[in-house]
Specification:
- By secondary structure, this protein is α/β, with parallel strands linked by helices.
- Strand 5, helix 6 and strand 6 form a beta-alpha-beta unit.
- Helix 1 packs parallel to helix 2 and helix 7 packs parallel to helix 13.
- The longest helix is centred in the C-terminal third of the chain and has 23 residues.
- It starts with 9 loop residues before the first strand and ends in a 26-residue tail after the last helix.
- The model has no long low-confidence stretch (mean pLDDT 93).
Length: 434
């Protein structure tokens, strides 16, 4: 980006820090309490909230000012806190359009919450890991009880009040083995926009001075709930094959949309697949600003918004270097990879493996992403061609189904079905082949 272009940045706001009513086994943010040990007040003070909203509006150079509220669990703060947010945004907006997104586990939503979210036109990101048994594998409350029923009540309320929502699904060791079941469930509950987030958490015995394990710490072991690289690739492939035949233009899967943008060399709207990062920071409840949501560690603190303006903090030399390191620190194996333009090394926090030549910095998920990107190449090229012609990418669905019917006629009845189900062809897709 040139200096003449607007400097776009995004802040993930943690108005209640890491405090949450759930105790998900895989949550990487609950441990952040250790940074603020002895803290008794977790709600963002009004003076910090006002400074943040004022500074964000002043520092944002794009036409719309976007706010993203996360946690912990931000709904623990109650509707009045966010009514104050709306009041301050109107006070400082000077007529500029404001948008808000909130990520929630959904368990505390009620009619009052949903009316507020609808009236203020919030986009709600609902954490939902699939059908009941898969969701409840890791997403439990403080007493270890399942959370699915409470989330389901929240989902039904969002739909009843016509609140715009999408779903965020953490792809973990358990649900990665049942990709179509997860995808079809999300589609059937009405999620028109789906985010799949790979769960990769390292198992590090040395947690450091604050009880936390920095991304810079050595070691390549992962937790028992982390998704395996090959399983994640297979998960994306299976979901893509379903989506490209039935749901293009009807269901939007973030990974697929971003891949198409990168395929067409349009640049990535998602930081993990962008060439550089550093534009997505995290703000803690007390005004501390960190390099990224996944880098909330003392060494990545950029300052406090009560001591320096947000405009200054988002462009510190340390933050600029942090963003450029994503591009500059790739190992040679990545630089020579034929799908680098689609992956760009993915998230730096996952780069703790060694390349085949022993060089550090290879992404843990590399094998999975290579399988996915190479598998979807022909379909991506076909959709890109349609877009260049001013036509809808959804046209690919009819072409894909025609090609499937032609290919299936050459498969023997007792051969493994080419869809990858593991069943014989006669007991699977042959049944629906005209």
């Amino acid at each position: 980006m040139s200096d003449r272009e607007p400097y776009a940045f995004h802040v993930m706001t943690k108005p209640i820090g890491p405090i949450c009513n759930l105790d998900c086994a895989y949550c990487f943010y609950l441990e952040k309490e250790a940074i603020y040990s002895g803290n008794r007040r977790w709600a963002m003070p009004d003076e910090v909230l006002e400074a943040y909203i004022r500074d964000t509006i002043a520092a944002t150079q794009t036409p719309e000012v976007a706010f993203a509220w996360q946690g912990g669990e931000p709904t623990l703060l109650g509707v009045p806190f966010f009514q104050r947010v709306a009041e301050l945004q109107r006070l400082y907006s000077d007529g500029r359009p404001i948008s808000n997104a909130i990520q929630t586990n959904g368990t505390l939503l009620d009619d009052d919450w949903c009316r507020f979210l609808r009236d203020e036109q919030y986009l709600v990101g609902l954490s939902l890991d699939g059908p009941r048994d898969l969701h409840d594998t890791y997403r439990v409350d403080k007493q270890g009880r399942p959370s699915f029923d409470a989330v389901w009540r929240g989902l039904e309320l969002l739909k009843m009040h016509e609140v715009t929502f999408n779903t965020l699904t953490v792809v973990n060791r358990a649900n990665s083995e049942r990709p179509l079941e997860v995808y079809r469930f999300l589609r059937e509950v009405g999620s028109g926009f789906i985010q799949f987030i790979p769960l990769v958490e390292r198992a590090l015995p040395d947690a450091g001075p604050h009880g936390l394990a920095s991304p810079l710490a050595p070691g390549d072991a992962v937790t028992e709930w982390s998704v395996r690289p090959e399983a994640f690739g297979a998960f994306l492939v299976r979901v893509f094959d379903e989506w490209v035949r039935h749901d293009v233009g009807k269901v939007f899967v973030q990974t697929f949309d971003v891949t198409l943008g990168n395929w067409m060399r349009l640049g990535s709207a998602l930081c993990v697949f962008a060439e550089e990062c550093g534009r997505g920071l995290a703000l803690e409840h007390n005004g501390d600003l960190y390099a990224c949501d996944h880098y909330v560690y003392p060494e990545y603190r950029r300052g406090n918004i009560m001591e320096a303006s947000l405009a200054q903090l988002v462009r510190t030399p340390e933050q600029v270097r942090f963003g450029r390191d994503k591009r500059d620190c790739l190992p040679a194996q990545c630089r020579s990879c034929d799908v680098l333009h689609l992956c760009n090394g993915e998230c730096p926090k996952h780069r703790f493996q060694r390349a085949t030549d022993g060089e550090p910095g290879l992404n843990y998920l590399c094998a999975g992403y290579q399988r996915f990107f190479r598998h979807v190449g022909p379909a991506m090229e076909a959709m890109a061609a349609l877009l260049r012609q001013g036509r809808a990418p959804a046209e690919i669905m009819a072409r894909q189904r025609d090609a499937d019917r032609a290919a299936l006629r050459t498969v023997g009845r007792n051969d493994p079905c080419p869809c990858g189900s593991g069943r014989k062809h006669k007991h699977c897709c042959l049944r629906s082949t005209p």
